[in-house]
UniProtKB/TrEMBL annotation, chains A, B:
Gene name for this UniProt entry: proA
Enzyme class: oxidoreductase
Reactions that this protein is recorded to catalyse: L-glutamate 5-semialdehyde + phosphate + NADP(+) = L-glutamyl 5-phosphate + NADPH + H(+)
Pfam families, alphabetized: Aldedh
NADP keyword on record: yes
Listed GO CC annotations: cytoplasm
Subcellular localization, as worded in the UniProt entry: Cytoplasm
Protein name: Gamma-glutamyl phosphate reductase
Membrane-crossing segments per the record: none
Species the sequence originates in: Tsuneonella litorea
One GO MF term attached to the UniProt entry: glutamate-5-semialdehyde dehydrogenase activity
Pathway it works in: Amino-acid biosynthesis; L-proline biosynthesis; L-glutamate 5-semialdehyde from L-glutamate: step 2/2
Amino acid sequence: MALDEPSRDAAALIDRLAGAGRLAQRRLARSDSCERARALEAAADALRSDAPVILAANAEDVAAGEAAGLTPAMLDRLRLDADRLEGIAAAVAAVAALPDPVGQAISRDTRPNGLVLERVRIPIGLIGIIYESRPNVTADAAALCVRVGNAAILRGGSEAVRSNRAIHAAMVRGLESAGLPGEAIQLLPTQDRAAVGAMLAAAGLIDMIVPRGGKGLVARVQADARVPVLAHLDGINHTYVHAAADPDKARRIALDAKMRRTGICGAMETLLLDAAFPGSPAIVGDLVDAGCAVRGDARAQAIDPRVTPADDADWDTEYLDAVLSVAVVDGPDEAMAHIAAHGSHHTDAIVTEDADVAERFLREVDSAIVMHNASSQFADGGEFGLGAEIGIATGRLHARGPVALEGLTTYKWLVKGTGQVRG
Amino acid sequence: MALDEPSRDAAALIDRLAGAGRLAQRRLARSDSCERARALEAAADALRSDAPVILAANAEDVAAGEAAGLTPAMLDRLRLDADRLEGIAAAVAAVAALPDPVGQAISRDTRPNGLVLERVRIPIGLIGIIYESRPNVTADAAALCVRVGNAAILRGGSEAVRSNRAIHAAMVRGLESAGLPGEAIQLLPTQDRAAVGAMLAAAGLIDMIVPRGGKGLVARVQADARVPVLAHLDGINHTYVHAAADPDKARRIALDAKMRRTGICGAMETLLLDAAFPGSPAIVGDLVDAGCAVRGDARAQAIDPRVTPADDADWDTEYLDAVLSVAVVDGPDEAMAHIAAHGSHHTDAIVTEDADVAERFLREVDSAIVMHNASSQFADGGEFGLGAEIGIATGRLHARGPVALEGLTTYKWLVKGTGQVRG
């Protein structure tokens, strides 16, 4: 199908793809866990045996991207080599090996009238994944969906269109070789933006949308979607160093939270130093020495002459870079008020040896992830022991924080009787 | 505030109410479970001591409703008397006594690096309840929300406006007397429909909307809302009587599922009789004898001369009345295909003594509630042991089937470390 399929057909296209996807999903829902695992192993094998085709397609994407003037960072996200492709295949095989929550009983109860009630995990249904330049998402997201019996409609970035098609074709061949329907993973056959709009509007056809990419993409999806969206927009993460913090722990945690990797959503963006904490100069000094640009309020500027003034916008900025805003606060109430006013409900942490204050912070801070004496960079599905993640969510419903297989399931009630009537 | 507050101010009104509600909710989130329980007991007491005021307000609503020509059924839903009001107060006290899921750990894991990860239940936040003529919802829904630390914005029907205000005032006085903020329960001060529109649009301010009422209300809310909605639109519930059904059980279950109460969402609307089941004449005979109008396909009409022809629309109709559509099917595959084509994912049941067929039906039918050898009229939070329900949901995310206290919570991750950095 041509890339320039006209936008007036977008809704019809999504109707058709969703119909095929829902049919395939019903077949997946009847498959057992081992069948789905074997199909993903076959998909991993297909990715490996298709390596020459996939790498050639990727080389064309990279060449087109260079001609189009993509930045080096974008080209790096786009580029595959033999090692990266093996990593993609290995990740699909790893998802195949993950424990499967589908069929698990969440609760079980026998009523006085003898009715047995169970809630069991089931697939959500048909999931739309909208992503940008990294072609690995084509394999990753599809594998996570299929592992728990969901079908997926994938819409990748234009710059990776050839790579995505080659990866998609291998995945489909793998599923089909194992007897599962290839329509379980469909790649949108057009890069027309109207098709994305139609996906976002397809309430009742697509059950959930997961945007994977930069803030612009996520914001557009959240603003326009009528389908429920699982995502986070910002990770404006705070670390509050309390008066009773262990100075060494606080130094290590603050440096890691900001500087280990500055571009990930779990990176610290604002450091709140308690005025009563004596170790602040060492923390700020470490950060500046490590190459971090530190912007602070008046009291933070007084800690180290290299701290530059922060303006109002700094407290609401996710830098995703070696930049940090620092405020000095008077006690936990002021710290938590700052987080409530400026946080994005992603990951916020306290460093303290005072168990009562820690307990209060954990209870009262209203974020998907709240940490005590740990680096916010642990906000990650792998680090949480989930094996993988489809993303991190900061919405309030369904699944929060790192979302992996369990977040890609829902449940139904089973009621087992022996002829009971309500009478 | 006047009832005719102009609609151009609707968004500003909802902004203001939501701001106050979110502030009150933060206070509720810090309260402990006993504090919330005591506040609801105080609210129940206030409802009792305000009985003269509430009943007088209700009498005015009823008089206005009579003058406006409300139907007897609507007037009955609207009317309170001393017994009904005591029932409302007792229901609030019963919610106070329910076990509270907030603070419960859903999961707990210690990672190899020593990090302790817990998921704990927390309130959702600010919940909008949009309902029709029954004034008891003002107390019921508010009590369920507050029990688990949510704030609520209530918008009841115009015909019950005086009753709702009197009930709301008593509830607020109860909360305040126990030291909780009255703004935890706010009643929309206007019946302007634009304010409802503003509630539905208030994504990020209101966390969830629960519509309580007829299909017209639910359909409008589902169509217009940008805020997540927890509800069901239809309860087109099927009972499939398999070839290996016990004839006596099947008779009792079918009669109860249809006729115990015909107007509730768990009532059976379509009966699927297996062609190989010998007991169909008795089942159909019972139903017709009980006053049910039975409409059937050709084979169903052949079972009993009193069965009238069904047309295409019958299979997609929720009668909520003593009317039933009956189809004869050849085996479980055809039964499940009919349910997949015409069901509303609410409650579907099989009657059979064949455990394998039952297991397959329970696994494959994609409804919020799937039953074996039981009447679909058990689809109810009280019958499920939940103590109460805010409604039944047929969406795929967050909470499904009867939704009670647990469905009014979400979770956050707590990460407890000893100085771990990701390094």
